[in-house]
Every structure is written in structure tokens, then in C-alpha cells.
Amino acid sequence: MTWEVEQALVEATLHRAADQLGDxxxxxxxxYYARHPDARAxxxxxxxxxxxxxxxxxxxQAVYCLMRWYERPGEIEIVLVTTIPHHxxxxxxxxxxxxxxxxxxxxxxxxxxxxxxxxELATWRSLRGTLLDLCALGVSYSRPELxxxxx
Length: 151
Known about the structure:
Blueprint: H1 3-21, H2 25-35, H3 39-46, H4 51-68, H5 73-91, H6 95-110, H7 118-141
């Protein structure tokens, strides 16, 4: 399968999810917090007045990565592999939070794919594995011992 075909399948998935779910931010965050209730404190710590703004930005960043992977893989690799260590080292965000949020995005959107759409499911699973591997690579480059206490 060419990257153009895979990109078209991902776009079909995203359009279906938008039609069925509307703004996916709340369903993604609800799933994320249901699986990882301790993550809520991180969002409140870093944006006490409007944690939902930060939640939205994080979901938007994850969706951007999966939307652009096929046409700009180098850019997305840089985003994930450099952003994750930065957040771990400067903000003290746990490494698992990145992977867990990406999983919630993939699971929320992926739940809208019909079981009969085999090519779409295969592409979605492959993209999920690729981006989660990049998250793990970013985590491996982090040096949490460099974390400075927040003022």
C-alpha cells in the first residue's frame, strides 16, 4: 500500500470520527482520565485556571501527528522525539502520560472504524504502533535527573 493510500484511509477515519463524535477532545480526555486518573493533577498543575485549554492543546498535538505522519514523517519524528524529553525534563511530566494520551486518541478515534474496513483497521493499527514507538523513543532520550523544581 502506498503512503498516499494510507493517508487517504487515515483521513477517512478522521472524517468519520468527526461526524460521529464532533470535537474529540472531551471523549479522548474522559477515556484518558478513566484509565489514568492521576494524570488530571498534571493538567491542573500546569494550567490551574483552565486545564481544559491544555487538554485541548495536547489532544490537538496528538491528532496533528497522526494526520501528518504520511506526508511529513520527519517533522512528526522531530516533534515527538524532542518534545517528550523536553516536557519530562523541564516540567516533570511523567513519561507514561505521553503514551497514555496517544493511546486514548487512537482508541477513541479507532472505535469508529467499522470491523469490515480491514484496510483502514490495518493502517490505523500500523500508524498507532509507529507513533507509540516514536513516543517510546522520545522517552528513552529523556533525562529526568535534569528536572529542576518548578518555582
